[in-house]
Amino acid sequence: MRTKTLGGPLLIGGGGGIALYKVCTLVSTWAKTTDPVRVVLTEAAQRFVTPLTFAALARHPTYTDQDFWQPNRSRPLHIELGTWAGVILLAPLTAQTLARLAQGLADDLLTNILLASTVPVVAAPAMNTAMWEQVSVQRNLRLLLEDPRYHLLPPTMGRMACDTVGSGRMAEPEELLAYTQSLFWTQGHRDLIGKRVLISGGGTREPLDPVRFIGNPATGRMALALARACFHRGAEVTLVHAPLTEPVPDFIQAQAVTTSDQMKHALQQAFPACDLLLMNAAVADVRPSQSYPHKLAKADLPSQLALEPVPDILSELVPLRRPHQKIIGFAAQTGDILPPAWAKLHRKGVDALFVNPVDEVDSGFATTHNRGWLLLRTGVSHEFPSAPKLAIAHQILDGLGSI
Ligand code: CTP
User: Fold this and answer.
1) 3-state DSSP of the chain
2) For the chain, what percent of residues have pLDDT higher than 70?
């Protein structure tokens, strides 16, 4: 069986748009891993960023149409690169390249590579809002996406270089990176197509007054990794989140909450429509019995705080579950992890529980990596060694396949 990883040989096709500057960051990040990256630029792309810039960042010469027409090659360059790549990223995908690919045209190096390869492609369009919304452009996009090889990383809303505010900005480098990594993991397989996944994340805050609360160090990074992984695998994703330290990507439908009561309400509303609930939020277990609408002066702060339990959201959702719905709990533990985690899985009545240690360096709250065990109600468990949170998210989703 293939060992799944988030990396491999990446080929980037850069188009002629100002968003190409963002691709420099991605090439730099990728080149710092052990995985190789090659860049192919269209004629127009070279007017925005030079081949030299990408060659320096990739530690490898950049390919252009000039290389394509070199007479002294033993093997055609488009075949060589098309078979070398594990995943291809088109960023930015311009209206012109989109139109040519939708028609199956092959009149330069980049379009020839795409026809000569069979690997998954992440397409990250970027163009002015009016261009993006043109009937012809949207028709070309639909045509391109008829081929399941092509995965769309949609453009986002915002102010563009032309000062238009609207849809058409290319996704940020972190999103290009995450989608590309996911496609190396899944090989482009969309096992969650047609599924609606509901995810909770972040740490709830239970206020004493407008400036003080009971909370926990959760940042929501694991929930964001789960949301991205589910989206990359074809799901429609809703994220109900307490305060996060990072923005939620546009392609995730997000609802922000603060307290456990608000989270409970939002999840109860959204739960009936979902196929899978990933209950990743770190819900504060208690709240002050009394909270104040105005800021308490230091002298007025109580010397002792009376506390009351907050609702156990998960335990209230489990009885509402219909046969097709799966519910996964998460547990941050310290000390002896597995015996209490198995007990918690049965107590909460969930289909699976991911348990991770939070008393170790580089695992748990506010870290880039995580490790832990996925316990299934069938009694099977999978251990995942330390890995980036996106890899842990994919391992969890892979592990759920059998329940
Ligand atoms: N959870 C919840 N509502 C709460 C507390 C927890 O929905 N009030 C959910 C969490 O989102 C998580 C799972 O329950 O998916 C396990 O959380 P954990 O805090 O480990 O569970 P507790 O029941 O609080 O267990 P413990 O006694 O170990 O604190």
Assistant:
1) CCCCCCCCCEEEEECCCCCHHHHHHHHHHHHHCCCCEEEEECCCHHHCCCHHHHHHHHCCCCECHHHHCCCCCCCCHHHHHHHHCCEEEEEEECHHHHHHHHHCCCCCHHHHHHHHCCCCEEEEECCCHHHHHCHHHHHHHHHHHCCCCEEECCCEEEECCCCCEEEEECCCHHHHHHHHHHHHHHCCCCCCCCCEEEEEECECCEEEECCEEECCCCCCHHHHHHHHHHHHCCCEEEEEECCCCCCCCCCCEEEECCCHHHHHHHHHHHHHHCCEEEECCECCCEEECCCCCCCCCHHHCCCCCCEEECCCHHHHHHHHCCCCCEEEEEEEECCCCHHHHHHHHHHHCCCEEEEEECCCCCCCCCCCEEEEEEEECCCCEEEEEEEEHHHHHHHHHHHHCCC
2) 100
Q: Please tell me the distance between residue 326's alpha carbon and the centre of ligand 1 in angstroms.
A: 17
What is the CA(348)–ligand 1 centre distance, in A?
9
Instruction: Please give all residues whose beta carbon lies within 6 A of any atom in ligand 1, as ranges.
Output: 260, 279, 281, 283, 285, 310, 312-314, 329-331, 348
Q: Does the annotation count 162 as an active-site position?
A: yes
Give the predicted TM-score (pTM) of the model: 0.97
Predicted confidence (pLDDT) per residue in 228-262, tens digit: 999 999 999 999 999 999 999 999 999 999 999 99
Superfamily of the domain at 10-186: Flavin prenyltransferase-like (3.40.50.1950)
CATH 3.40.50.10300 at 196-402, yes or no = yes
pLDDT in tens, 47-59: 999 999 999 999 9
Q: Where in the chain is the domain with CATH 3.40.50.10300?
A: 196-402
Nearest CA to ligand 1 atom 16: 331
Query: If you measure from the C-alpha of residue 228 to the centroid of ligand 1, how many angstroms do you get, rounded to a whole number?
Result: 23
Q: Which numbered atom of ligand 1 lies nearest the CA of 279? A: 15
Return the residue whose CA atom lies nearest to atom 21 of ligand 1: 331
